[in-house]
Amino acid sequence: MGIFSEASGHAGNPVEEQDKIAKELIDRGRKVIKLSRGDPAVYFKTPKYIIDAYIKALKEGKSQYEYFYGAQELREAVAKRYRRMYGLNLDVEEDIIATNGVSESLIFLNSVLMNKGDRAVMFRPFYTLYEGLLEINHGRAIYGSYDEGDGWAIDLDHLKKALKNSKRIKYMLITNPNNPTGTVLNRKMIEEVVDIANDNDIMLVSDEIYDEIVFNGATFTSLAQIAKGTKHVILNGASKNFDSPGFRIGFMIVPGKDKISKEFKERVVKYAQMRLSVNTPAQYAVAEGMNNIKEHKRSIDHMVREIADRTNFTYKMINESRYMEAVRPNGAFYILPKLNIRDINVKDDTEFAKRLLLEANVQVTRGSGFGSKNHIRIVTLPDKKTIGEAMDRIERFCRKNNR
Ligand SMILES: Cc1ncc(COP(=O)(O)O)c(C=O)c1O
């Protein structure tokens, strides 16, 4: 390791690991189709009213460090949003902490809770950063699972077994709607998970960054609507619902008044103090994003309609292929097909993704990066013409490598 820490070996993000090769191919004149990065602003312009609010904030001189807890306007807007959407009564002064994206919330979560040998429960397949951030903080994962055969619902029996003899569990993290599966947990499932967390006295964390990107008849339920009275944390932000990932705005909501929740908040705030501030003008822009209900509805409705159409189109093409099959998504903008690896002449999903980029110039993410071997994650944000072309290339690649 030399001068480097052991923990830093866990850093990185599988979503980006092939970006360098993709860039080299593009530089050599190849038309690479990228289905790897879940960045909505590449495909849908950030709404004008939000951009205008950002510019207005700058013109008003809002370029100072903001209060480390987050701008009052943003925290008030978040509280109003959660009252409107989920009937919650959050304390603006204490319960909402602004962060530089959900990514920073995850850094705080692990920094505050994990000591060497502590554990956290996450479900396979998981969002790529969860495992690395846990390990950087010397924590170890206990894996529950989303069951592909059951529409990616949580396998409750497996979870109960996994928790049985485990000690020092600091938190259990669910993702709803889910990245990488693109599915939404139903209310009953969340109730069961809350019961299990209570029985085992575990803090529940729900990453709900896609909570407005729900379609195909699914209904989203926030953990906060169910976990009242138990210790829990909600992670959310502006990257997806407000189509502004580059603003780097997120927030952590800790509604509980119990001793643990209070101390957790105090400790998170100390980390927030040490990084001084979240992007100031962006906080004002996102506050306007949430408060201007009419404009927001217009842009999110358009985006979700398009995403549903593109995702359903991708789903249809995948299931027409004999080389892949997938669960139909109803949220976020991903699909996670299983490769019929016995029919394709590749060792595993890693080789598949690598060669697919080199030979067919389509960039996807290997499922093993999400803890789901022999799957690939496809981002369903590009227009149907692009997705159609990419799926044709994937099909030709599979046929050429038919085993
Ligand atoms: C489930 C999930 N959580 C967190 C993030 C990161 O969010 P942010 O841009 O707020 O850091 C992403 C980004 O793709 C995500 O899919």
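^ pyridoxal-5'-phosphate complex. The chain has two domains: 7-45+296-400, 48-292. The first helix runs from residue 19 to 27.
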